[in-house]
Write a structure and sequence with these properties.
The protein is an alpha/beta fold and 978 residues long.
Length: 978
């Protein structure tokens, strides 16, 4: 059963305004009236029209900043938390309650701490996190008891009781409700707090099936609510929800139906979905009692679907239980079994034993109806065991005994306890002692935990080694299995090509088949090499050649990338005519990996130096770069597999490990020297003497060498990545390892888009993070990193989560399409594809983004969820909103401070905001200031000449110019119209 006591906290603020000022600056009489008026307007809108309440939250914050009034600064996020609670965005509510707590602690505003913790307590038990709820309520009580603040103490006792009730611990629940009631009896509290306690006591007796007592408490609650001097329709309807349910259980169906239909219509009108879902469940149950099972199914299904996201686990469980019972009544046991098992597995998060007992009882009936008598019997046995246990816990006599005790002897004791300063001090000492003992206990548990973790890690390491061995064997076996059918394919193709009688067209077709079979064979050989490296069986294939010429050609190919990244790139390679022995493939991999690594960690305007020369039979090869450098720990571990200098770095962490293995195979050495924030140098020494390799190398004749594709990590496709000139055109990133298809796609989109290309997923991710494109087209099957991994990485990165991604693949199965869509791809096209269809899909996806950008520019108040494409986008926009809220009215606030506040570079912030809102960072700041100005023009009495300065403009004439460009009228004209 859901409780709305949370909203009564608003009234606490309004009624206790003067009381809450004793720790902060005292306002003048006029300012006090202004502030109280703002909060009353907020209260008026929060339930029936929550979006309108945001305006008053912003004004409360502005008031606090202007008057340097601590209470307003703390209460602004507190009220914002209640707004998000009202619209069921609980993560955001938790964020703002925590922010309010933090601000209250910073300003030493104790009442603010207690109120924020009280709000957090209720959010936690709504989410089914009852232990967190109990802990947070106790933290609230520590502060409230220290202040002797009876309203907060009383309200928190009620919250604690609700938390224990959701655990089905009714004895603890009623004890806290009666503590609250005992305070009411001696020191009457405000009507909203008394009503909350009565409402909670009603739910306890409803659980105990004492419906007359339950109904009497609900009526008492509504009588108290009616004493509040404000519109209390919302609070009355929340109690009526409980009251209608109690009348249903009592058997008074007509009265229950009448009350619940009224509450159903009311909550639907204000879009309070969770209440609508609960009422739908009860209306369905009433229809069952009346024998109208089809109408009942409609209501119960509505209730379940609206609860399905499990924002409120207890209510979700109630809805699905009743739906299961319905299908038993409809003689559809399989549906009932499905829903009831789903409840036990996924929806009883709070481990509520009463809910479990009810579910098992219904499940037993469903199994019996399905003629599965064995399961019906075993399930019924579990039901009776739980029932016996519950009878001991929920004995109504014991509950009434507790009630009687609190109604007589304990009431005066409780008041004395709350009034007595000495006993409060003793309570604090007890808390400190418990905290110390708890700390010792936690340390002991932590020690045991780390010991178990260490043992598990040892077992895991052993298991991982076994898995690596199995993986290596798999690669070896599958590679050999592929070679036989490839040979059978290649042989008839070669025979056909030798036949001089075939047509030119057939010869061309078989030539393509031969080339692709050879390519496939090469891929299989590479797969086999992976297993040989792990098994230590890889042998170098050495040949004679000019190694400095090879390194010179490879290093020169990075020049274009250096220019793009504005890096000073120095190539110092001493030419030589001497010939040495080396493995060309190994040298290529060493050179490319070291240069790629150097460029990756060199900042803009940094320097990379490539130096190589031979001395006798030794190659000396050095790669240096400026940047952050390496620590001593980094230097010690840099060549270990999977080691990362920073957890946020891109890549797998195996590049340098591979370099070291290849250097050592080449009978050489590699060292690294680095100083923090200076220069890092990798020094490679390779022996080029043939006798140095011994029997562990194969001699290769260069004329018979199989041609190999060398993929330069950064520069494989620099011819595709022309400089982006037209910044107005959308940026399109194409990631495809097939050269012909990549160039075809580039030509297709070149005229209408700024196209950048990448030959593999690793480069694709790097380019996406660098340029923040408007759309990505990616192949799925690619070397280094496939399209699925690329999509996962981009969709889980705050910088790129908004970018639409179209995946291309040759796999046409439904399963492979599910995989693509499941990782976050926006569309999925199989090869061969229709070029016109691809162009249309790209246009439509970009157009849909443009529509949201246009909506942002036109709307006065637009929430992050309304323009976000993913949860990460929403979190980013919330960070942006916090940065804007904190700094917007400061004239000095600029793009540099903005980008620093959200943790991005200026370019990344520019591209991200442009994608989501259609505005650059500077335009976004100006837009926000102008929107704030329109609100002030509508709702404040600030002098017209001061409006611009109030929202962060330094110059009034410039403010007027910007305002007129945006709204086609001057600020004065706008104020008159509105």
């Amino acid at each position: 059963m859901r409780y709305y006591v949370l909203f009564c906290l608003f009234y606490i603020h309004f009624a206790s305004f003067a009381q809450s000022e004793h720790n902060t600056k005292v306002l003048s009489e006029n300012d006090s009236i202004t502030y109280l008026t703002l909060k009353q307007h907020y209260a008026k809108h929060i339930n029936p029209n929550p979006d309108s309440s945001l305006i008053y939250t912003a004004r409360i914050k502005a008031f606090g900043i202007e008057k340097k009034y601590v209470i307003a600064l703390v209460e602004a996020p507190y009220f914002k938390a209640h707004y998000f609670r009202r619209i069921q965005q609980l993560d955001s509510a938790i964020f703002y309650f925590n922010l309010s707590t933090q601000l209250a602690k910073e300003h030493k505003y104790l009442r603010g701490i207690a109120l924020a913790q009280n709000g957090l307590c209720r959010i936690h038990y709504f989410l089914g996190e009852t232990e967190n709820a109990i802990d947070t309520c106790n933290k609230c009580l520590e502060v409230a008891i220290n202040m002797d603040d009876l309203p907060i103490i009383t309200d928190t006792y009620t919250a604690l009781g609700n938390a224990y009730r959701r655990q089905n611990n009714l004895n603890m629940a009623i004890s806290y409700f009666l503590k609250a009631d005992s305070i009411h009896s001696t020191t009457p509290q405000r009507p909203d707090i008394i009503a909350a306690t009565y409402q909670s006591l009603g739910t306890i007796y409803d659980d105990l099936k004492d419906y007359d007592t339950s109904i009497s408490y609900f009526k008492k609650a509504n009588n108290e609510f009616k004493r509040i001097p404000a519109d209390v329709s919302f609070y009355l309807k929340t109690t009526d929800l409980h009251l209608g349910a109690a009348y249903y259980r009592k058997g008074e169906l007509a009265l229950a139906d009448s009350i619940l239909q009224e509450t159903y219509s009311y909550f639907k009108s204000i879009k309070e979905d969770v209440s609508v879902a609960q009422i739908s469940t009860y209306l369905g149950l009433i229809r069952i009692k009346k024998g109208d099972l089809d109408a009942a199914e409609g209501y119960l299904e509505e209730g379940f679907q609206m609860h399905k996201d499990k924002k409120y686990s207890f209510e979700s469980a109630e809805a699905i239980l009743e739906l299961g019972k319905l299908y038993i009544n409809k003689k559809e046991p399989k549906k009932a079994i499905y829903y009831l098992n789903d409840l036990l597995l996924n929806y009883n998060d709070e481990d509520n034993t009463l809910m479990q007992q009810k579910t098992l009882k219904s499940l037993s009936e469903a199994y019996a109806l399905d003629r599965n008598y064995t399961k019906a019997y075993t399930t019924l046995e579990q039901t009776y065991k739980l029932k016996d246990s519950l009878n001991n816990i929920h004995n109504i006599a014991s509950i009434r005994e507790i009630d009687s005790k609190y109604q007589t002897e304990k009431k005066e004791q409780q008041i004395t306890l709350l009034k007595s300063q000495n006993e409060t001090v003793e309570q604090q000492k007890l808390n400190q002692r418990n905290l110390l003992l708890g700390g010792i206990g936690i340390m002991s548990v932590a020690g045991l935990f780390f010991y178990i973790l260490y043992r598990n890690r040892q077992k895991t390491n052993t298991k991982l080694k076994d898995i690596d061995a199995l993986k290596s064997n798999f690669f070896t076996n599958i590679s050999h299995e592929f070679r036989t059918p490839l040979t059978l394919i290649s042989s008839p193709i070669e025979d056909t090509l030798l036949d001089e009688t075939i047509s030119h067209q057939k010869r061309a077709q078989f030539t393509i088949a031969k080339q692709n079979s050879e390519r496939l064979l090469e891929l299989v050989n590479q797969l086999l090499d992976l297993s040989k490296i792990d098994d230590g069986q890889l042998k170098l294939q050495i040949q004679q050649g000019n190694i400095t010429q090879l390194i010179s050609a490879l290093s020169a190919s990075f020049s274009y990338y250096a220019t793009q990244k504005n890096i000073s790139y120095n190539i110092d390679i001493t030419p030589t005519n001497s010939i040495g022995w080396f493995d060309k493939d190994a040298v290529e991999k060493i050179t490319i990996n070291l240069l790629s690594n150097a460029f990756k960690y060199t900042p803009e305007n940094g320097t990379v130096t490539c130096k190589a020369y031979t001395n006798n039979d030794t190659l000396i090869f050095k790669i240096s770069n400026t940047g952050k450098g390496l620590t001593s720990n980094d230097i010690e571990n840099i060549f270990e597999r999977f080691y990362q200098t920073n957890a946020q770095n891109q890549g797998s962490g195996i590049g340098l490990a591979l370099v070291k293995e290849l250097v050592e195979l080449h009978k050489g050495s590699i060292d690294v020297k680095s100083e923090p924030n200076k220069e890092t140098t990798f020094d490679v020494r390779l022996n080029l003497n043939k006798t140095n390799f011994g029997k562990n190398a194969l001699i290769v004749n260069p004329n018979n060498e199989i041609k190999k594709d060398v993929t330069l990590h950064y520069n494989a496709n620099t011819e595709d990545n022309d400089k982006i000139i037209d910044s107005e055109l959308p940026i399109l990133l194409i990631v495809e390892d097939n050269d012909d298809l990549r160039h075809l796609l580039k030509q297709t989109f070149d005229s209408n888009y700024n196209v950048i290309t990448a030959a593999n997923g690793n480069l694709g991710v790097e380019l996406a993070l660098e340029h923040i494109p408007d759309l990505v087209i990616s192949d799925i099957m690619m070397p280094e990193k496939d399209g699925i991994e690329l999509t996962k990485e981009l969709k889980t990165n705050e910088l790129t989560a908004h970018i639409p991604i179209i995946l291309l693949t040759a796999k046409a199965t439904i399963e492979s399409q599910f995989t693509g869509v499941d990782v976050g791809a926006d569309d999925y096209i199989t090869k061969p594809f229709d070029k016109k269809l691809l162009i249309l899909k790209v246009e439509k996806l970009i157009a849909s983004r443009r529509q949201l950008q246009l909506r942002y520019s036109q709307e006065l108040v637009l929430l992050p969820k309304d323009i976000a494409f993913t949860n990460l986008d929403e979190k980013f926009l919330k960070k942006v909103q916090v940065a804007i809220d904190d700094n917007l009215v400061e004239p000095s606030f600029n793009v540099s401070e903005f980008s620093e506040a959200v943790g991005m570079s200026r370019m990344q912030l520019h591209r991200k905001l442009k994608a989501l809102t259609g505005l650059t960072a500077s335009e976004f700041i100006r837009s926000q200031r102008l929107k704030l100005a329109t609100q002030l023009l509508k709702n404040s009495d600030i002098n017209m000449s001061q409006i611009g300065y109030s929202v962060g403009f330094n110059d009034h004439s410039y403010f007027t110019k910007c305002f007129k460009e945006t709204y086609n009228c001057t600020p004065s004209e706008y104020a008159k119209r509105n």
